[in-house]
Design goal:
Layout (H helix, E strand, L loop, with lengths): L12 H12 L18 H30 L12 H26 L3 H27 L9 H33 L4 H30 L4
Length: about 220
């Protein structure tokens, strides 16, 4: 039971009187509380973290499958040379480079800085498109078909699995970029910027072990 309430400084006399009346009735006046929050104060954050845990488990299982199949093979790769390093290494460098503008976009979103969000989200969208183009070249340089043998199947599974996540976040980044240039915005859209940046971090970090498995492990 709430017995008293101090009206915030921005209330006029009428609002203050209403707040006092609500307090006497044991009702909490929450009209001036924010309608959105960042990080763990957002339900979207918890949903994103849960999704990353599920998808991270899928990546881990695929990597375990790779090494299990390798342990059963007399030769690995079975009938082809390892993937060419050029495109995969270039994409890794682009992923690492993207971490900087991604954090700037996240920071701008949490500061409710629309101009900053527009700038850094556009940079991120350009980088995402560039990474997807390089990924297309990367897929042509794996030196194995998906149906050639067990090695080809697991390599393509890892690549396609990560590419789906990459395409998903690139699409989300593009949609948010358009919204920030064209439409009226609710506060929760800034939360979307923060969560989009969090998910992009997951896409980048999940690629590092996959790169090591696909490009370095066959040469070890």
């Amino acid at each position: 039971m709430i017995t008293s309430a101090l009206p915030p400084p921005t209330m006029d006399r009428r609002d203050a009187a209403e707040a006092d009346a609500l307090a006497r009735d044991g009702v909490l006046d929450v009209r001036d509380l924010p309608s959105f929050g960042f990080s763990h104060r957002s339900l979207m954050w918890w949903g994103t973290v849960g999704l990353m845990l599920i998808e991270g488990t899928a990546f881990a299982l695929a990597v375990v499958m790779y090494f299990y199949l390798r342990s059963l093979a007399n030769r690995w790769p079975m009938s082809t040379p390892p993937p060419d390093l050029l495109w995969g290494t270039l994409n890794t460098a682009l992923f690492l480079l993207s971490a900087w503008p991604n954090q700037l976009a996240k920071h701008a979103g949490e500061k409710l800085d629309r101009a900053g969000v527009r700038l850094w989200l556009t940079v991120m969208l350009a980088l995402a498109v560039l990474i997807l183009i390089v990924r297309a070249f990367e897929l042509t340089a794996l030196n194995v078909r998906w149906d050639s043998d067990a090695y080809g199947s697991i390599v393509w599974m890892l690549m396609v699995l990560h590419t789906v996540h990459l395409v998903t976040d690139a699409w989300d980044t593009g949609v948010l970029d358009v919204l920030f240039f064209t439409g009226p915005l609710e506060g929760k859209r800034y939360v979307d910027i923060s969560e989009n940046a969090l998910y992009w971090d997951f896409v980048v970090l999940s690629w590092i072990p996959i790169y090591a498995v696909i490009y370095l492990a066959p040469r070890g």
